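User: I'm new to structure prediction. If I give you an amino acid sequence, what do you actually give back? Let's try with this one:
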Amino acid sequence: MLTLDLTNAPRWHDLAPGVRVQLRPLTTALMVATRSDPEVEAVPDEASDEERAMAFAKALARRAVLAWAGIGDADGNPIDPSPEAIDALLDIWPIFEAFQLTYVSKGLLLEQEKNASAPLPSGNSAGAQDTAKRARKPARTARRG
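Assistant: Good question. You get back a string of structure tokens that encode the predicted 3D arrangement of the chain. For your 145 residues, that looks like this:
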């Protein structure tokens, strides 16, 4: 069953021990805006999947992060989120992975579900083609003892 959260309120996500980010809900509007982000669109066609994922994650995080806790500058002073700081945060591998798992992948689960083979209007196998050759003669049945 699909559960709808009608509150659409930002949520806190733990990305590492002592590191939390408050993120907007992962909505259609947010995903569409991220897909048309200039930095995402500028990724070359020959870029690897990893490079595409990084560009998308950073663009999404720049739009989604509202606040954070446990993040500071080189001197240990707390800093506020900024585009540069968000990009630097996602350059840390465990943080990137946690962001992908706790935020991005949950939104993409529904997208993956719709990628399954849907039933055809006239039945779920009406348009399917046979892949096996017909048997030349009927199979023999086992004897009952």
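You can read the tokens as a compact description of the fold. Here is one thing that stands out. Residues 112-127 have pLDDT under 50 and may be disordered.
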